[in-house]
Amino acid sequence: MNPTGVLAKTSRALRIGMIPADGIGKEVLPVAQRVMAAAPGAPQFEFVPLEAGFELFQKTGNALPQATIDTLKNSCDGAMFGSVSSPSHRVAGYSSPIVRLRKELELYANIRPVSGPPLPGSAIKRPTDMVTIRENTECLYVKQESIEDTPEGQVARAIRVISEQASTRIGRKAFEVARGRAEMRKRAGSDEPTKVTICHKSNVLSITDGLFRTSVRSVYDNDKPENGGPGNYAGIQLDEQLVDSMVYRMFREPYVFDVVVAPNLYGDIISDGAAALVGSLGLVASVNAGDNFIMGEPVHGSAPDIAGQNKANPIAAIRSAALMLEYMGYPEPALAIYRAVDAVLAEGKVLTPDLPGGKATTSDVEEAVLRALN
Asked: How far is Cα 188 from Cα 91, in angstroms, rounded to an integer?
């Protein structure tokens, strides 16, 4: 994938699959759709409603219809996914539709940027600006679990899969994202270095995390001209951090991290935790990226306790839509959306209840962002 987009610009309308799925996904995704359509410089869109989710499974016994997969593969340029209510206990016949979609569409990278000023009263005095590149296809998320009865009681086991191929591929994606950030900083006149941090626990999991660590490092080492490589990542620094100490440092010194690349489970935990640095999961966007397809997905869950009450924060979904457009090769409308959201947050008058002092509704935030776009 070209780090700045997978689609060449086209005069035809872009077909975007819209999958609200569960809970507040049904409220925030329509907001993101309307903001996308209103963004200056945006292409024409054709939004395609599609079904998936646990609520659909409860009605039909199928969490992800084949028709949804086929439509995305055969006639959509990109997609937006709302949220899913995967149960915490085993439900016979159910598996997460978002996990399956990532595999079906070969969306091997989950890209989650977190940026913003320090929270009021925080001991951290510098802005956070980090992006987690999460491997999206393996680790414990292969969901190969078993349980057996023994004389001592039940024993449960889970298989963890880490492959050289997937680790190398996600390492390459991390360095491409880092190169893009370095180029943007250079254009902005900044001499701030760009750094990739490998997150692992190879001091304990020496085989699986060890393979992840060495595979990502090999991408960096093989790129060096002295090793016969093209030198695409010259100037990018490489670091590594054990996952437990990474969490500690992230909450004390988030500014030391730039691009973090991690196996699936660690990347999920780190990026969710990083949302606390900017105030709420309701602010944090992501895209699921492959070489030929992009799917935006807000980081938050389905929030059933507030679903249907017009209380959900739509900013994560709006930012995810902008991130999707950016990676599809449409930076101008993406930038317009980013700036509109930032303006609303900076003003601080229209905030949902998940943010300090917030009392605004989902609709209030939508109206504020749309005004800021003009």
From this structure: 51
What residue ranges of the chain are covered by domains with CATH 3.40.718.10?
A: 1-110+287-374, 118-277
CATH: 3.40.50.300, 1.20.140.10, 3.40.718.10, 3.40.50.2300. Which one for 1-110+287-374? Answer: 3.40.718.10
- Mean pLDDT for 354-362 is 93
Three-state SS annotation for 84-127: CCCCCCCCCCCCCHHHHHHHHCCCCEEEEEEEECCCCCCCCCCC
The answer to whether residues 297 and 80 touch, using CB atoms and an 8 Å cutoff, is yes
Cβ burial of 196 (10 Å; 0-12, 13-18, 19+) is buried
pLDDT of residue 9: 57
Distance CA 277, CA 120 (A): 11
Q: Any idea what DSSP says for residue 5? A: B
The token duo for 268 is 């999920």
pLDDT recorded at residue 143: 86
Indicate the burial class of 38 (C-beta count within 10 angstroms; 0-12, 13-18, 19 or more): middle
The pTM (predicted TM-score) of the whole model is 0.89
